[in-house]
């Protein structure tokens, strides 16, 4: 019942996860792009790691065919981690200033807006997961399917500015930075809340 959610989540990671090292030019504009990319990617790595770990936690619940309460706790925690990661990525792009590219200011502002919107969307998914009825397995499965459907929509929309941010010399510079490349998930943090109820396992929400 959690497989669709895991599949949707794996497709919904930030575009920065798809970057791979390539390109190497030494002109002045490339140097500026490299300097900008270092600012962003240095801050991005911990956040991309959070997203990878959250994804792995949901995948683990799928593999283990866990009880609804355990799935709820793990998914809630994962969505909160992803929401916080998107917000921090938006802050990193904002703090780095405009990238050295055409319409850099506008591209930066739109990318920050998209990242912040994703943070809000994942926080909303956390609330929906927290509200699911874990005592009725059929209702829980239906509710989880609704969450997965919404997650799929979120993952397919609103990434135009991020694509633009990651194009051209700036995109090549980001791709060369280890901090903007896809991390390997560490051991899932997750289901430690075995002694906690799903309610106590779901952390406080940000405004």
Automatic annotation (TrEMBL):
Biased composition (Low complexity): 192-207
Name listed for the protein in its UniProt record: Small secreted protein
Region (Disordered): 168-207
């Amino acid at each position: 019942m959690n497989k669709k959610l895991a599949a949707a989540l794996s497709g919904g990671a930030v575009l920065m996860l798809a970057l791979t090292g390539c390109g190497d030019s030494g002109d002045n504009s490339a140097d500026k792009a490299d300097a900008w990319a270092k600012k962003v990617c240095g801050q991005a790595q911990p956040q991309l790691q959070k997203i990878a770990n959250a994804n792995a936690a949901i995948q683990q619940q799928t593999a283990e065919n866990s009880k609804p309460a355990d799935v709820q706790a793990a998914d809630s925690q994962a969505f909160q981690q992803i929401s916080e990661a998107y917000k921090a990525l938006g802050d990193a792009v904002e703090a780095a200033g405009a990238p050295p590219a055409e319409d850099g200011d506008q591209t930066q502002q739109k990318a920050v807006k998209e990242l912040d919107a994703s943070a809000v969307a994942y926080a909303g998914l956390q609330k929906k997961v927290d509200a699911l009825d874990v005592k009725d397995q059929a209702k829980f499965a239906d509710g989880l399917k609704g969450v997965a459907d919404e997650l799929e929509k979120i993952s397919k929309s609103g990434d135009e500015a991020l694509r633009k941010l990651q194009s051209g010399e700036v995109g090549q510079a980001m791709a060369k930075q280890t901090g903007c490349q896809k991390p390997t998930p560490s051991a899932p943090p997750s289901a430690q809340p075995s002694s906690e109820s799903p309610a106590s396992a779901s952390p406080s929400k940000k405004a």
